[in-house]
Amino acid sequence: MAAAPAPQVCVMLRGITKTFGPIVAVDGVDLELRTGEIHAVVGENGAGKSTLMGVLHGLHAADAGEIVVDGVTRSFRSPREAIALGIGMVHQHFMLAASLTAAENIVLGFEPGTATRSSLSEAVSLGRTVAERFDLRVALDRPVRDLAIGAQQRVEVLKALYRGARILILDEPTAVLSPDEVESLFDRLRILRAGGITIVFISHKLREVMALSDRVTVMRRGRTVATLATTETTREQLAGLMVGSDASTNKPSVPKGRVAGGSPALSLRGIATPPRPGNAGLKSLDLDIAAGEIVGIAAIEGNGQADLLEIAAGVQAPLRGTVAMFGRDVTGEDIGRRRDVGLAYVPEDRHRDALALDATALESFNAVRRPQHWSDWLRPAASRSERRRVAELMRKFDVRPPDPLATCRSMSGGNQQKLVFAREFSRDPKVIVLGQPTRGIDIGASQALFGRIWAARDRGAGVLLVSADLDELFTVADRIVVLYEGCLAASLDPASAAPRDAGLYMTGARHAI
Amino acid sequence: MQFDAMAPVPVARRHVLVTFAMEAVTTFAIIAFLGAVAVAVMGADPLAAAAAALRQTLAGQYEVAGLIALSLPLMIVGFAAAASFKGGFYNLGLEGQLILGAAIGSIVGAHVGPFWSPLHIAMVLVAGGIAGGIVAWALSWLRVRFGVDEVVSTLLSNYIVILFAIYLATYPFRDPTRFNGAMHRIAPSARMSTLVEGTELTWGLAIVVAIAAVLYWLLHRSKLGEDWTLMGRSPSVARNCGIDARRFGMLIMTSSGFLAGLAGAFMVSATQHRYFANLGLGLGFDGILIAMIARYRILAVSFWALAYSWMLLAADGIEQEIGIPSEFAQVVIAIVILGVAVRAGLVSWIVAQVRHLSKPAAPLPATPPAPPPAEES
């Protein structure tokens, strides 16, 4: 799309610098946003994208530099001051009160009515006005916890618009969405753009950036490397700028195969789990994963893949059915015992299930070490040699900073995930269960994680991979199984099938089994 | 600054003791200031009050011994609170568990034995601990089995348990020579021997020091303590890392109840020598306050139990010499506790402001304490 003849600049960031202790997160960055454009900001994990956006919407105070909004230099001390100037943020992890309705969430903190009496019906009608204006339909009277992820995201967008946002920052909005939800989000963002809203779109996924944005700013190591018109660049060029070389995003050619014979690494028989609102549960599912095979699970959120992960890992017990690892029945064994016999588990929700944010890297490593004998409980938790070993592993897996005493909170999302991988893959696992392993992770880091998965597969591990990213599934997996409504809908060979085929089964448009 | 992934990161970490000393000094400064203001408001001379407070608490070995003696049961119940809160469970039934521990300990001291004294004392303490532990275990079982919120169940359990203890003292185990609601005096072999003649300070001091040392290792240094802390930070992460969160949760609650019961039995064996209806009332909640001020750290609990006892005795001294009612001291204590509760946030806010004004930036301050999460998975 061609830019308007005289592009109007609505926000200018000049020389923004922000440090956290010894780490310079953003280093003298300039950024210019034009009214009514979709401006993508891309960069690896830790490139400073989130920090820069934090400065822009008032979460962080910049150490140096200035923010110019509509020609006036401003400084924000809180997101509230930023939103007063029309700068709104949609976080990757939604900031919604689950038990309140969509309408209540939209007006939360800015309720209509007087100080002592807020008017709910007015909230609903206000919410509806905003929703209709931008064609963002949500069930306004339903509690947010009953809404699908895509709808929750629309609530977040509506919340920002209701507060008067003219500039909308979306932090990796597609990370949590299924492919069709991504398409519908993009349609809506285009409608918003047509309505004069400026959108800042943070992403790792260059395909989406190319499809959606008008201009792209590439960040690397806390600095802006380039700002380009999307029509004048290519995925390859962007990828090269992001990682600082001409590395392309082409799939690495890795031989795929599986070790024939022997009992399957992971065998699920007749697994059933109870359905819940927004989650179909599993209905008598049979699935075998051979040693040396990566099975990718493609499914739209809520079709049973979350239960599948927890059953395979042993976090949840099935209603019916059996789980076996290498022919050994482990149905009654919890995740701790399964880990002892070679399970590795990367949960979908990193912050809820994988890492305690206040724990240090060392503590996070130790957490999966189960004492075998009662005297193990009394041993010191963090010996010097243990600390060295963890530091070593953190370096090997490129976790930054490679400091065993750094808290998880102080790390970027990508580094947290690398930490989880370092923990799980350093135990030479035989059965690997992965939930959304690259959610919110940049290309470079994802490639490294894929390499770990392939290496483990080639050592004879069986891998169960659940991902919302079809490209990822088709890149990584040896076989793709589609789940629909808790049942197997199809089994595809990624060499011969295309993501589009999977999409047909995922949406229930086609059924093979 | 270019970030080199291979270089060690120079993050300055203050020594734990330095942090703690800074906390203690700030808090005492606040206490002194608020106390002075309170005394002045009452129309008395703050300096005279301070002198009275010091005379009452720190003048000689008797005063110091009395202060330590008063703080010992508080320390144990503070450990009990710290253990449960650190593990993410709100055991608000410490009061009842402590009192039942005192009652059961008193029964074992009076009606079992006499034995060789150390054995008898150990029996009293362990019996009290088991009594408290059983109560907490039962409540945690309700939580795990039926999802009964332990905040409510432990809080309400206090009424049942305390009234049961009073029933024991009023009917089956009543000492007929005493007023209603007092048990028989325990056998001499069940009493701890005095450490400083003429005071209530006994060899129980050694027991508390030993308990503190063991708990310090278990909760702060060992693998057990690491998992314990993880349970408090995130039960769902603990579960996904292979910890059996249900059983571990029951262990956390039961240990907390055991310590509370032990604190009650300790009071009986060390100073009171029998259970009676008013013994230990309010101590459970004092223990919770102390644990919160100490942010669930065992050594800090010991320190703050001592400081809290000092405040109580100082208030008594001021009442005796200056005539300001000691209840007034409760107001000061309450304000101090509120102040301490917001301290972490306040201090980091001030540090942030100072850093903002004075560049280059200093390393980040220690992480503020997080209260244990209220909900589980």
Please give the oligomerization state of what you see: heterodimer
User: pLDDT average of chain B, as an integer?
Assistant: 84
**Class derived from helix and strand content of chain B:** mainly alpha
Helix-strand topology string of chain B: HHHHHHHHHHHHH
Shape of chain A: globular
Major beta sheet, strand line-up of chain A: 6-7-8-3-9-10
CATH architecture classification of the domain at 254-342 and 469-513 in chain A: 3-Layer(aba) Sandwich
SS field, number of helical segments of chain B: 13
Helix coverage percent of chain A: 25-40%
Number of strands of chain A: 20
What does the model show?
The complex is a heterodimer of chains A (513) and B (377). With 513 residues, chain A is of the alpha/beta class. Among the domains of chain A are: 9-83 and 204-245, P-loop containing nucleotide triphosphate hydrolases (Rossmann fold, 3-Layer(aba) Sandwich); 254-342 and 469-513, 3-Layer(aba) Sandwich (Rossmann fold). Helix content of chain A is 32%, strand content 23%. Chain A has helices at residues 49-56, 79-84, 102-107, 120-133, 149-162, 179-194, 206-212, 235-243, 305-313, 335-340, 350-354, 361-366, 384-396, 413-425, 443-458, 470-476, 499-506, and strands spanning 9-20, 23-34, 38-43, 64-69, 72-74, 87-90, 167-171, 198-203, 215-220, 223-229, 266-272, 285-289, 294-298, 320-325, 328-329, 343-346, 431-435, 462-466, 479-484, 487-492. Chain A is globular, with a radius of gyration of 24 Å. Chain B has a domain at 71-296. Chain B has helices at 16-41, 46-58, 61-86, 94-111, 117-146, 150-170, 204-221, 223-233, 235-240, 245-272, 283-293, 298-322, 326-357. In chain B, 70% of the residues lie in helices and 0% in strands. The longest helix of chain B is centred in the C-terminal third of the chain and has 32 residues, at 326-357. In chain B, helix 4 (94-111) packs parallel to helix 6 (150-170) and helix 11 (283-293) crosses helix 12. The chains are: A alpha/beta (513), B mainly alpha (377). Chain A binds chain B through residues 19-24, 27, 61, 63, 221, 313, 315, 334-337, 339, 345, 347, 352-359, 363, 366-371, 376-382, 395, 398, 400-403, 405-407, 409, and chain B through 1-3, 5-6, 8-11, 13, 217-218, 221-227, 229-230, 233-234, 236-244, 356, 359, 361, 363-364, 367, 370.
